[in-house]
Amino acid sequence: MRKHVRCLSLIVTMAFFAVPSLADDVSLAKDMTAVIALHGLPCGQVVSVKRQGDNDHIATCQDGNRYRVFVNPDGRVVAQKL
Questions:
Q1: How far is it, in rounded angstroms, from Cα 2 to Cα 32?
Q2: What are the per-10-residue average pLDDT scores of the chain (82 residues)?
Q3: What is the pTM for the complete model shown?
Q4: Where are the domains of the chain?
Q5: Exposed, middle or buried, 63 (CB in 10 Å: 0-12/13-18/19+)?
Q6: From the CA atom positions of the chain, what is the Rg in Å?
C-alpha cells in the first residue's frame, strides 16, 4: 500500500509541474498564429512550435505551411516561409 501512495504522489507532482508547460505551449502557438497572420501569410492556426534558439522558432500550421519566426538584428519580428 505504501508503494502505491508513493507512486500516486509522484504522478500528482509530475502532473502539477506539467500544467504550466502545456499552458506556455498553447500561449506560444497563439502568439505565433498572430505573428504569421499579421504578416499576411496563410496559416489558419499554428499546431506545433519548435524552439530553435532565443526568439527563433519553427511554427507548423494546420494547413501544412511551416514558418521560421524570429527577431532580426533590427529588432523586428520576421516570419519566413520554409
A1: 46
A2: 46 44 72 92 93 92 94 91 94
A3: 0.70
A4: 2-81
A5: exposed
A6: 18
